Amino acid sequence: MDDPTGRNRLSEEESPYLRQHADNPVNWQPWDDDALSAARERDVPIFLSIGYSACHWCHVMEEESFEDEQVAELMNEQFVPIKVDREERPDLDRIYQTIGQLVTAHGGWPLSVWLTPQGKPFYVGTYFPKEPRGQMPGFLDLLDNISHSWEHDREEMENRATQWTAALTDELESVPDQPGEAPGSDHLESAANAALRGADREYGGFGSSGPKFPQTTRLDLLFRAAERTGRDAYREVALENLDAMISGGLYDHAGGGFHRYVVDQTWTVPHFEKMLYDNAEISRALLAGYQVTGNERYADVVRETFEFVSRELTHDEGGFFSTLDAQSEGEEGKFYVWTRAQVRDAVSDEQAANIFIDRFGVTKRGNFEGTTVLGLAKSIEAIAEKYDLSEAEVEEQIDLAREQVFEARSERVRPARDEKVLASWNGMMISAFAEGGFILEDQYTDTAERALAFVRRHLWDEETQTLSRRYKDGDVKGDGYLEDYAFLGRGAVSLYQATGDVAHLAFALQLARAIDREFWDDERGTLYFTPESGEALVTRPQELGDQSTPSSVGVALDLFQSLAHFAPAENFAEKAERVVETHSAKIQANPLQYGTLALAADRLATGDLEVTVVADVLPETWREHIAGTYVPSLLLSRRPATETALEAWLGELSLEEVPPIWAERTQKAEKPTVYVCRSFTCSPPQTDIEEALSWAEQLRPDT
């Protein structure tokens, strides 16, 4: 058999990240059976490099090392070099990032790992320069030293690999010998207090320095705790975070949408890549903030973000693309930053240009390499006073200038776009658009439905009831992971609540049943990240903690709890409770690291507020009232008005009996009727939505 490692095989891959390396002199391999078999046959280590298309330091390491002939010669002779797109293979990324954290206390991308031919890690790091720099060893020296050690100290390398793999299994796969007691409703306040202690009350965010990342799960914890306890500090910290994210450089003030994170304490300069998942989760947090405060600024930023996603991250058929790069023309941030001269060239009216410069802080010195990342610098009121204009006139001038700045920016060389359509990230964005459609405007619900239809058409196999991970230009690749099923299932539930279309609820049930079949381990009482029928790796990971996205286990439990109301015979609620009990010690010891699990535990402890509407169409005034009210753990259940229509729904859901959330809940006087329930206590049937929701106060969980 020909040795596949004799050439670079990445041109055969669809991943934009892998294709970026297809012309390297390194004989890169994808992670597949051919590459792994070749490593075993040649009996040489694997050099595994994990990154993604928008990763800045991945580009740097490529330019310094992977495009270098000397480096390539050594890699090709002494190793099997494998490139992995972390967005396509989050399982591999989770495993090998974990060993990086355990060994070096650091992680990130590019991740550089040396493995035995069996895939066991024995050396790990992130970015390495070609030559030594400061405290960082040079990549060339590392390659040479590791090759020498493999040849002359093989036993030591193998022993280390065995020890590290055992540590990985203990960290990722194992569960406690004995389950604990599920946290009670008081645990939410403990988690919120932990978030409060870490809050930066001067600049917003968490921590006393940069970098700062969106921490949307913490905001969810704080909003829920504020609603339950009435404590102002929780609400204030959550809103300070939202204000920081939408005022500084994290937000794209010219074109909408959010960058990945900021590098400083003051939220001034971002790392300029834009990820689909950040724009989904931040939008959901802003929608919650809008419900809490009625602040139209939050709603406007959501609208602008949705416009950005629709314009720049949406496939013609409706699915959502993954990322925009941080670089254009080889420079990070070049597409997004401004000088005063550039603003004045772009804006036709001199006063409007000056107002724009004042509003967004475009200074002579700039705040990023001589240019300015836009951020809100002066208030409308202060600008109105300076120019002797009304506030309405100032806003009109800003809108005019922003439009022209945006038009001028559209002529620049755009950052590259990664056009992978990932099931999990689409699920997150579907939830955001569905919630936005219910709370703001119907058009967003239509966008969510188109995206869900795209994913079902291209990634869901109706016959096998399985989900694939990625779609790219007609090519489908990879088994779906827990996050794919869980996030997409949550998106389908969000759409059912927004539209009342039972087809979305039916699909969510299909996904939950697949989770039960492929990811649930009844003996250990947990959910694994990889499917039972999937590829066997050095360990089978669980994703319990929040990463750059919420914990897939936590979101799966959220899905289980929603669907338990409709399919009680499938024991979704019992399985959710078992997972929380299994991992109770971790949740209680570190509720911020396991924030999504902590929220799932709180939902179990307090129960959902079930709002069952019996009507063929949800009255618009009812929608407005429900949408304008912040109610944590609200489950809006729609059911048809007639028993005949309900029977048809049961058939579509593959249910033999009417579930309790619909049973004996009929219309009163042939009018739209609503029932409000929590923990088996219900209001009388109501035809007035305000009267019905007044029961929510009486059914509040104990604090």
Structure report:
With 703 residues, the chain is of the alpha+beta class. 49% of the residues lie in helices and 11% in strands. It has 27 helices and 21 strands. The strands form 7 sheets. It has a 4-stranded mixed beta sheet with strand order 2-1-3-4, with helices on both faces. The chain is globular, with a radius of gyration of 26 Å. The protein starts with 15 loop residues before the first helix and ends in a 5-residue tail after the last helix.
Question: Secondary-structure map with pairings?
Answer:
Elements: H1 16-20, H2 33-42, E1 46-51, H3 56-66, H4 69-78, E2 80-85, H5 90-104, E3 111-115, E4 121-125, H6 139-152, H7 154-173, H8 187-197, H9 216-229, H10 232-247, E5 261-262, E6 270-271, E7 274-275, H11 276-293, H12 296-312, E8 323-324, E9 327-328, E10 331-332, H13 340-346, H14 350-359, H15 380-387, H16 391-409, E11 417-418, E12 421-422, H17 423-439, H18 442-459, E13 460-461, E14 466-472, E15 475-479, H19 482-499, H20 502-518, E16 520-521, E17 526-527, H21 552-564, H22 572-582, H23 584-589, H24 595-606, E18 609-614, H25 620-627, E19 634-639, H26 643-653, E20 673-678, E21 681-682, H27 689-698
Parallel strand pairs: 1-2, 18-19
Antiparallel strand pairs: 1-3, 3-4, 5-6, 7-8, 8-11, 9-10, 12-14, 13-14, 14-15, 16-17, 18-20, 20-21
Helix pairs in contact: 4-6, 5-7, 6-7, 8-9, 9-10, 9-11, 11-12, 11-17, 13-14, 14-16, 15-16, 17-18, 17-19, 18-19, 19-20, 19-21, 20-21, 21-22, 21-24, 22-24
